[in-house]
From TrEMBL:
Transmembrane segments: 193-214
InterPro entries reported in the protein's UniProt record: ARM-type_fold, SSU_processome_comp_20
Entry annotated with the keyword Calcium: no
Source organism superkingdom: Eukaryota
Keywords carried by this UniProt record: Membrane, Transmembrane, Transmembrane helix
Originating species: Eptatretus burgeri
Protein name: Uncharacterized protein
Length: 219
């Protein structure tokens, strides 16, 4: 699935370059320049407003719709937006999971490394949805996680020990498809680690895991 994730082009790429990877470092005059540039998140909100008319999504929309139109707005209100996304992803039997998971991805694309402090919480919330029997829900979750790995891998490999501790329960999960996805996505990160020489296999657990990936053909 990770190999199918492709990064599309967008006018905000200029804003991201100007920010030097961090919205908080962007000079005021550059934020002013981008004040009328629509964000990925705003585009996603509008798309799902037209495609997904459910009560659950409407409630979420009422909380964030006035906060996300421009890039400076999104940066300023990011904590509120993050909290709203997390709250609604935890709603039992939500009918808005597909748009919510997609909007998590759009938020990552906008905030880039500023999103990373929220990654761990989103990871646990999202993987908590994997116990569902609905194949559509599983696909939404896997797609969301795949994009998160694609957009955040540079940060994830610097935090690889923490990431591995998060992954351990998934690698040992009772459901085969969850174990397979965990192995695939973690091997994606391991390839990045090896490619950029950011990590040494210094512990036996990592060494055994890596050997297992090689022997199974995952790497």
């Amino acid at each position: 699935m990770l190999s199918q994730v492709n990064d599309s082009q967008h006018t905000l790429r200029k804003a991201h370059t100007a920010r030097s990877g961090s919205s908080l470092q962007c000079p005021v005059n550059e934020l002013y320049y981008f004040q009328d540039v629509e964000t990925y998140f705003s585009e996603g909100v509008q798309k799902w407003r037209e495609m997904h008319c459910t009560a659950h999504y409407d409630i979420f929309l009422s909380e964030v719709s006035g906060l996300v139109h421009t890039f400076p707005q999104l940066v300023y209100h990011q904590d509120t937006i993050v909290q709203s996304l997390q709250n609604h992803l935890l709603v039992p039997n939500s009918t808005a999971l597909e748009p919510l998971l997609d909007l998590v991805v759009q938020l990552v694309r906008d905030l880039q490394k500023d999103f990373y402090p929220h990654f761990h919480r989103f990871f646990f919330i999202t993987t908590g949805l994997l116990d569902a029997r609905d194949p559509d829900q599983l696909e939404w979750v896997f797609t969301c996680l795949s994009y998160l790995f694609k957009f955040l891998w540079r940060l994830l490999i610097k935090d690889i020990h923490s990431v591995y501790s998060m992954y351990s329960p998934l690698l040992e999960h009772k459901k085969e498809h969850i174990r397979h996805f965990a192995a695939e996505s973690f091997s994606f990160l391991m390839r990045k680690v090896l490619l950029f020489d950011c990590f040494m296999l210094s512990s036996s657990c990592f060494g055994m895991l890596f050997i297992g990936f090689i022997s199974s053909g995952t790497l």
